[in-house]
Amino acid sequence: MRVCGRRGIFRNIYALVLLGLFALCVYKIGRNDEWREAHKKLIGNLKLRSRGSNSNNNNNGNEGAVNREEFANSQMGYVFPDSKLEEGARLQLFDWHNHTQEALDKARTGPGEQGLPHYLPADLEDKREELFQTNGFNALLSDYIPLDRALPDIRHPKCALKRYSERLPTVSVVIPFFEEHWTTLLRTVVSVLHRSPPEVLRQIILVDDGSSMKDFLQSPLETWLKRYVPKAMVVRLPYRKGLIVARQEGAKKAKGDVIVVLDSHCEVMTNWLPPLLDPILNNHRTVVCPLIDVINQATFAYTAQDHGGRGAFDWRLFYKRLSLRPNEQKNLPEPFPNPVMNGGLFAISRDFFWELGGYDEGLAIWGGEQYNLSFKVWMCGGRMLDAPCSRVGHIFRHAPKGRPSVKGDFLSKNYKRVAVVWMGEYAEALYRKNPRLRDVDAGDVSKEIAIRDKLQCKSFKWFLEEVAPDLSKMYPPVEPPDYANGTIKSAAAPSLCLDNGSKENGEIIMYGCHGGGTQYFSLCWRKTIRIDSEQFCWQVPRSIGQPVTTSHCQINNTPVSQMWRYDPVTQQIQSNGAKGWCVEARTEERKVAMTLCDAMKKEQKWIFSNINFRLIEEHYPPFL
């Protein structure tokens, strides 16, 4: 009995050694499917014994009933369901560029080709303006530009040399649309079709979010797709449910391993898919976003936004960007971790998307979904990257006129749901910035909380410390006190106050004091003067005598042209960069301008509602 027992042990060890050597051999060959099938076959040929369950723990010698398929899968790890690729498979590297098509594209000329701006004749101006108002961009010009126009290769130079796994997970591209213009929608589809490897592109899923105003989005669209894009399908929602629900419904129809979400007015760059898919092949709990370039809404010029920044937010949940860290900058164009996605364009494993519960179904229309998904990904076992070698152009349009309005403050409800479920005690920072949000009804969030608990997601404190450690430095949950804030009244005309004129990117004017949001300013701890939204700051003009304007606050390396100081003694507001320039009232014109400082001029005296005298004395040198 003892000899037989030893033989059994040696036989099992021998079988395991053979199994390991065989797996290593095929692993090195790199043929993932062949290895998987051979591995299953070998396991099936092994005599697997089960140990008896008696209290003496003796081997009873009975053959164990083993489900070979389940056992093989348990040994293989995650396998992408459509392509049957194994996560982390070490495959040969391959150049996915379509060099023939790229050469043909470089030779093309015509309206919009090479991403160059184009202009319509003056006699089409009335029609152009009509369609511009309806769509929020120059839709008439879009009709003059080829659907498959050539784009400039504005990627990082190293991207042209990059190689990716010779086999990649399959893709279902989901494109929601609502009253989209005909040619911009088709150009999105055509660019995806022409610039995606056919063996990787499984489906293009268009989701109509209840469009009813444009006939060409009905049966003509389906006829066109059936003829030219057989891989495409249209999912129709009975009425407008919003961007979030539309994406979710499209994801339900996806058959590919990976869901790629795009907007309906995009154009993808050459070789855009492999950089998104390669990191997901290595780790299926990875979400990858392309860099988003700008398609000019008036001229359709295609221009680069930059080579990357990290998504973030302030405590009003306005989307912000953080600079790349030194090692990320050094390693460009390698993918880098991104705390928060921009929102509309990303790739995610289909299984991981549903493991996370998809989007929060309680989010309405649009807004907040990028925070919901980003927090879920990072806090619940995943990661998110930006891939600089994947670039997608996007039309940043104006709000179209004449479309059905959405009733109710859905955005506040969306933000409240994100705060309640994912932000924990840090939700208080949101309520301090927007007290009204505290009383907003978030609705039933039990499903999201159940997902959070089931996945044992980490805390928001962990997210801030580990994923975005510099976010709290740039946007503190509790900001240092302002040097001064409130309304700014003119000493020369006490009934007039400074006002941003309801324009977030225009001139500062003088207007009758009313104390509303357009007249609330803060000289904050960054030494910038912000308007109430905190997105726009006062900007010093380039020459004396010119008006003070507002522009986007530049948080990273704030320029001196956005830095100011206030002297409570002389009551002057002076530029911190252009020394000797002060804000002066032009009361008759109800405007302000930068002029040479003169402490005796009443027109240069301004009175803040609230002044922190001690703070100004501590942090500002004596006024010049």
In a nutshell, what does this entry contain?
By secondary structure, this protein is of the alpha+beta class. It contains 19 helices and 26 strands.
Structure notes:
- With 624 residues, the protein is an alpha+beta fold.
- The chain has 4 domains: 2-76, no CATH class; 149-395, Spore Coat Polysaccharide Biosynthesis Protein SpsA, Chain A; 410-471, Helicase, Ruva Protein, domain 3; 484-619, Trefoil (Acidic Fibroblast Growth Factor, subunit A), CATH 2.80.10.
- The chain contains 19 helices and 26 strands.
- Strands 5-4-3-6-13 form a 5-stranded mixed β-sheet.
- Strand 10 and strand 11 form a beta hairpin.
- Helix 2 (32-45) crosses helix 3.
- The radius of gyration is 30 Å and the shape is globular.
Write the layout of secondary structure elements.
Layout: H1 2-29, H2 32-45, H3 68-76, E1 93-94, H4 99-106, H5 125-135, H6 139-144, E2 164-165, E3 171-177, H7 182-194, E4 201-208, H8 219-228, E5 232-236, H9 243-252, E6 258-261, E7 266-268, H10 273-282, E8 286-295, E9 302-303, E10 310-313, E11 319-322, H11 326-330, E12 336-337, E13 346-349, H12 350-355, H13 369-379, E14 383-395, H14 410-423, H15 427-433, H16 446-454, H17 460-467, H18 471-474, E15 484-490, E16 496-499, E17 509-512, E18 521-523, E19 529-531, E20 536-539, E21 549-552, E22 564-567, E23 572-575, E24 581-586, E25 591-596, E26 606-611, H19 613-619
Helix pairs in contact: 1-2, 2-3
Classified by CATH, the class of the largest domain is Alpha Beta
Residues in helix, % = 25-40%
- Fourth-tier CATH superfamily name of the largest domain: Spore Coat Polysaccharide Biosynthesis Protein SpsA, Chain A
Radius of gyration: 30 Å
Q: Any idea what the CATH architecture of the largest domain is?
A: Alpha-Beta Complex
- The shape, in one word, is globular
> And the CATH topology of the largest domain?
Spore Coat Polysaccharide Biosynthesis Protein SpsA, Chain A
Q: Numbering strands along the chain, what is their spatial order in the largest sheet?
A: 5-4-3-6-13
Strand content: 15-25%
Number of structurally distinct domains = 4
Number of strands: 26
- Count of helices? 19
Unreliable parts: 24-36, 38-66, 68-75
Give the termini distance in whole angstroms: 101 Å
Largest sheet: 5 strands, mixed
Assembly type of the chains comes to single chain
The structural class is alpha+beta
Quote the average pLDDT.
Answer: 87
